[in-house]
Amino acid sequence: MSPGASAEPVLGELRAEIDEALDRFLGEQARKAPDECVPPLVEIVRDFLAGGKRLRPLFSACGWAAGGGDRGDPAAVRIGASLELFHAFALIHDDVMDSSDTRRGQPAVHRVLARRAPGGDAAHFGVSAAILLGDLCLVWSDELLHGAGVAPERLHAARSVLNTMRTEIMAGQYLDLDPVAAGDELEGAWRVVRQKTAAYTVTRPLQLGAVLSGADEEVVARCAEFGDPLGEAFQLRDDLLGVFGSEATTGKPSDDDLRAGKWTVLMRLTWQRADASQRAVIRRLHGSADLDTGEAQRLREIIRSTAADSEVEAMISSRRERAVSALGALALPPWAEAALTELAGRCAHRAR
Length: 352
What we know:
Radius of gyration: 21 Å
Low-confidence stretches: none
Helix content: over 70%
Oligomer: single chain
């Protein structure tokens, strides 16, 4: 790939290959299902996966290249597909914990399953079944990874990265649920960013792909120099979209984070900068279960008046720049360097 060439074709090809691998794997799960209740659940997972951005599989494919792996190796695609199933597990459970009605503009999985309740408490059935289906995606993720065609010694070497990623996201989800555990200062919001999303979105997929293709410790460390700041930028953008994004674009109501009272970096900065009267409004409205449109707009006005949103935008830009500047140390093939540069822009400046 020549300097300045678009990475879109190779990213499109990778995404198509990942989608095909997911389709084959899920088809196999339906065919070999131990009970007739499983194939309909497979179809729910198919529908859920259809709207994904495939960021984690794309990052793992670039990590595979960073470790010297061949672009055309089917194992790299299967590794990426396994990460997409892990992501499905995390999102299905996240929507249950947040009591979200929608995801990607469609009903959340627990809402879909509630419609299939055999009777009784449909909401309880939907939540219970979604927990099981999320668990199933986690199991399938492991099955697909271990059937990817990677040598056992490399799978063993990658276990520490995989275990760390899994523990980080569980810790991050817990901190998101329990702001007391996270702490009531700005650093507490950063803990949620780093544990729940940042590493698991970019750094760990990159490192997993790299280790599985035979990378040494130096390459693995350099993956973090790119991935850590970009993962933070990704979550900071998510925080902005959660308050200012268009529901038609993001697929989720723009008032949800305010109604849930999420103490994101954006909201912690707002609180730090707010005066006494603004803090009184935040204290009254942020986290109000019956927050209406006008009240949500009042909170947005306070955020803007403190310039917290502008500060978060500056943080996103600086982290993206830091990530891209770290690419030179990875000695990537041209296609992978171009792909990571493109993905950095998508993470930092996406609209959904």
